[in-house]
Amino acid sequence: MKKLKFSLSRTERGVKRSYAVDFVMYGLLLVLGIIMVIPFVFAISNALKPLSEFFYFPPRIRVENPTLENFKDLFRLMSDSWVPFSRYIFNTVFITVVGTAGHIILSSMCAYALAKHNFPGKNWIFGLIVTSLMFRGEVTTIPSFMVFSKLHLINSYSSYILPALSSTLGLYLMKQFMEQMVPNEILESARMDGAGEFYVFWKMAMPMVKPAWLTLMMLSVQNLWNLGSTTYIRSEELKTLNYALQQILTGGIARSGTAAAAMVLMMIVPIIIFIFSQSNIVETMSTSGMKD
Amino acid sequence: MSKEKKKKSVSLSKKKARLGWVFVSPFVIGFFLFYLVVIIESIEYSFMEVKSLPEGGFVTRFVGWSNYEYMTRTLPTFMSDMWGTVSTMLYSLPMLLLFALFVAVILNQKLRGRALFRAIFFVPVILSTGIIAKSDAANNLVTAFATMNTGEMTTVAEEATSAFSVDGLMYYIEDMFTFAPWLLDFIETAASNVYAVISQAGVQILIFLAGLQSISPSLYEAAKMEGCSSWESFWKITLPMISPMILVNIIYSIVDCFTRYDNTVMNTIQQYITLTDYGYASAAAWIYFCVIAVLVLIIFGIASRLVFYQGKER
Q1: CA-based, 20 to 30 A from A129: which of A136, A251, B38, B123?
Q2: What is the H or E stretch that residue B94 is in?
Q3: Which of B119, B203, B311 sits opposite A278 (nearest CB)?
């Protein structure tokens, strides 16, 4: 039954591939995938190891007596914390969700205008943005702090979120996609039919570059989820999950197991979001509406 | 009559320009505030000596070019570290891009468990940031991987092919490439960096994938009707359509490579920041920035000539 379904789906999708090609492709993916996944598997196995097995040399992946003790320790430490732990989790989730959504919307809007509109100064803006890509945040610690304090953003959620909104890499990515993947003809015909510019942007252009903004989402989630302590935040209630977990980890070697458990917890969320976003992509039809 | 028409068209283009600014401005305001102002102000600091005071705060004193002089002349390691970083980047860039494109093309095929495979290739990106990179366990993890790679696996390989030990193989390869020692160097460096390269390719794979997914299937259908093999349609459709993404990836890879945490130059800069020698740090950052910028400009200039834009040739 299952086999029948498989062969049906092969022809249904119009895939004409010999089994040899399939074999080579899966083989390659498996080999490369195993290389990629070993550190991840190792992290999980570490989280399951009792402390007595933790420091074997050379390190091994197989766990002899797997326990959940590390996770239990982690949760015990969490519940002991001064600020309720759910607060840290809320902070990180809030920052990630708001920052990512805002970043996608703002940078797509900007990219849309840069790619599809003509207005004076647009090349200058784009040039500046591309140039600033090459600058790393740490280098500008003092001036950043000055700007933040002048804007009264110290000690608030905005100090996490606002810089993330206009992160330049995302804009660059979106602009290239808008330029390449959104045909002017479709936008023009929508405008002819009386669609407003925001409608054209939101309902025509954005669906066409869905793979691009899903990528952007992943990059942004990845950055914001792992945001640690910054100099802009003083009160404990506004600090992030990453910061809180790192405080737990500073306990030294005795906490190694707990550290591994924390690491696994931090990794799992981006991976789940990633798998979800990737399985959500359908082939886009950017040019299929055109007959030329 | 004609006057009126002219007036109207001017106002239309003005209206369009205004609309463009409406779309751009939220992002651009943020960009100016949090990125541009800050970056420009750091020029100022690169000409200053910054001293932090024990009671908090800091004082600055204008010192002219001496920070730059210190970085380029006095500090022996800075310039050589920088050239090292540049050459590593130039070595790994082509490999990184080829690998990423290759994997992305495979992952874009209709496969079972495609999302899972994609996730697997993104795992190194997740592993390389945040808490994971910082905690002790990560060190443990990296050493484990290194020993597995070099220690056990090579011994296994050597046992299996005792006639071809690794050294023997190296000898043969060197013998084969005596006509072009630089090529040999390139291959050797490439081979020893393989894991480093493929573990850095996650984002690039993702960008390529997004590009591939946006190519309209009707193009492939038309090509198939005309009797193109898949090999031909890769060169004639996939490659031109994805070429803007190749440019994106070149820029991304260069920037990523230069601003990584494990980069020696970034480490130097970081050290000066922790020592609160902010002037030195800014000067170093600006020297570094200029080198990268020149490099990016050259590569961008060459590559953007080769890029094909779908709507532009008309």
Answers
A1: B123
A2: helix B76-107
A3: B119
Q: Do B123 and A143 touch (CB under 8 A)?
A: no
Strands (E), chain A: none
Whole-model pTM?
0.77
To the question of domain A84-238 being in CATH 3.30.470.20, the answer is: no
Residues B76, A158: Cα–Cα separation, whole Å: 42
Q: B47 CA to chain A: closest CA distance, Å?
A: 14
- The residues near A116 (Cβ < 8 Å, ≥ 6 apart) are A178, A179, A182, A184, A187, A205
Q: B241 to chain A: which residues are within 8 Å by CB?
A: 180
Judged by CB atoms closer than 8 Å, whether chains meet at B136 and A133 is answered as no
Residue A14 has pLDDT above 50, yes or no: no
Q: What is the pLDDT of residues A237-267, one digit of tens each?
A: 888 888 887 777 776 666 777 877 887 888 8
In a domain, B298, yes or no: yes
Give me the residues paired with residue B50 across strands.
Answer: B60
CA separation for the pair B93, B196 (Å, rounded): 12
Q: Which tokens go with A148? A: 């933040």
